[in-house]
Design brief:
disordered N terminus; about 425 residues; two-stranded antiparallel ribbon; alpha+beta; twelve-stranded mixed beta sheet; elongated
């Protein structure tokens, strides 16, 4: 018997078992029943794989959110009318902003780099026998692309003169190019928006799918004055929102305060009274989304971690069976000099080795699974571009947790083995 041989060669009543020898004995003992050892660690493998996968996917989602927000620019601000809640449901914002507000923000605030009013609309777009319905159809100002950090692939954006004159010009995304023009060059061509002809003057750079999977290239941009006068038939000064870019990321908070003070003054809102508008920054949105994805990741990891506890219970049950099966062996070791502490350490090491071995396999499977899931998401959602992020810290923490689980759940069987009476153990059949 391996354990007996090692005890006879190295053990004595007045000596301790060498730690490395103890590890060797523990591993050899586990190796006698490989099938049972494999089934024992299955729960730990699943737990570590699940935790690693969930945290990695959560990190990928968080990075995707940050990448998406950065597409708006790190100095982006969004001003909208005050939204209301009715019966717990967020309602559409109250129209309270005007073109004059946008002009005042641009002219009077030193912290502001660019401003663009925004007017939303929804009309079918037609060219010949082809038609489409853009996901986004906005009337914007000439500085909109600067604010959005968006570039043109071809052509030009509409000018201030187009804005002032309400010219019938437009800039389109790649999806509209594909659906209406196929392989033809759209620049200079005419499309009909709500039965009104518009000339295509520019093509936006391709962006692909957004955070929610929505096609960001299915977009049509028009001068906001044209949308109001020709599509809405309105001569009012109202706009739906105002897009703003601060001069630098460091001036976003300053720009936010200045915009709030300016609009309060223009709208005649007394200090302390509720404003009829809201100002949101990209940094604020980023922090909020980061908190949401962090909570979801932690929740998923916690749920996955439950399987680690189940795996720990499995280890404890198998170790208790092992103690019973090896009672006579334990009695022989104690008879030739092994102390209770030596027995305790050996069985504890066996438990930790089982758990860590399962953790290593689980970590490998988790990393592979996270990469595979990310690849599948990108394949099913072309253009979504989910980043592949393997959370090494999470994997390391999971491994440590696996070792702790093995130690905690192996402690009782090890203690029980160390407390056996040598004489009773030798008599055990």
């Amino acid at each position: 018997m391996v354990c007996l041989t090692h005890s006879l060669n190295h053990g004595s009543p007045n000596s301790h078992m060498d730690f490395l020898l103890t590890v060797s004995v523990a591993i050899r003992a586990l190796g006698r029943n490989k099938m049972r050892a494999g089934l024992t660690v299955l729960g730990v493998v699943i737990g570590i794989a699940a935790v690693t996968t969930m945290v990695s996917i959560g990190s990928s989602a968080g990075q995707l959110v940050q990448n998406e927000l950065q597409s708006f620019g790190t100095n982006f601000l969004f001003v909208s009318g005050k939204s209301e809640r009715r019966n717990g449901v967020r309602q559409q914002s109250t129209p309270s902003l005007t073109e004059s507000d946008a002009e005042a923000v641009s002219a009077e605030l030193d912290s502001v780099l660019a401003v663009s009013p925004l007017v939303g609309t929804s009309k079918p777009v037609v060219r010949g026998n082809n038609n489409c319905q853009p996901n986004e159809m906005f009337g914007v100002g000439e500085q909109y692309l600067l604010i959005r950090a968006w570039k043109l692939q071809a052509g030009s954006f509409f000018s201030e003169r187009d804005i002032q004159s309400g010219n019938r010009v437009c800039v389109i995304g790649h999806t509209i190019v594909r659906e209406l023009f196929q392989t033809a060059n759209p620049l200079g061509e005419t499309i009909r928006v709500g039965n009104i002809p518009f000339t295509v003057v520019g093509i936006l750079e391709k962006k692909g799918a957004g955070l929610t999977g929505q096609d960001q290239d299915n977009v049509l941009l028009l001068p906001f004055t044209t949308v109001k006068k020709r599509l809405h038939g309105s001569n009012f000064d109202d706009v739906h929102a105002i897009f703003v870019a601060a001069k630098s990321p460091g001036e976003v908070q300053t720009a936010t305060r200045e915009i709030e003070l300016l609009l309060r003054d223009r709208h005649g809102i007394a200090p302390g009274a509720a404003a009829d508008f809201e100002v949101h920054s990209s940094d604020e949105i980023s922090k909020f989304m980061g908190t949401v994805t962090g909570i979801m990741t932690a929740l998923l990891a916690s749920i996955a971690g439950i399987s680690l506890l189940v795996g720990g219970v499995g280890i404890m049950n198998i170790m208790l069976v092992s103690v019973t099966e090896r009672t006579r062996e334990i009695g022989i070791r104690m008879a030739v000099g092994a102390r209770g502490r030596d027995i305790l350490v050996q069985f504890l090491i066996e438990s930790v080795v089982l758990s860590c071995f399962g953790g290593a396999i689980g970590m490998t499977l988790g990393v592979s699974a996270s990469m595979g899931i990310t690849a599948i998401i990108n394949e099913l959602s072309p253009g979504s571009d989910w980043p592949v992020i393997v959370s090494i810290p999470a994997a390391i923490v999971a491994m440590i947790f696996a070792a702790v689980v093995g130690m905690i759940f192996g402690l009782y069987p090890a203690w029980r083995a160390s407390r056996l009476d040598p004489i009773d153990a030798l008599r055990y059949e």
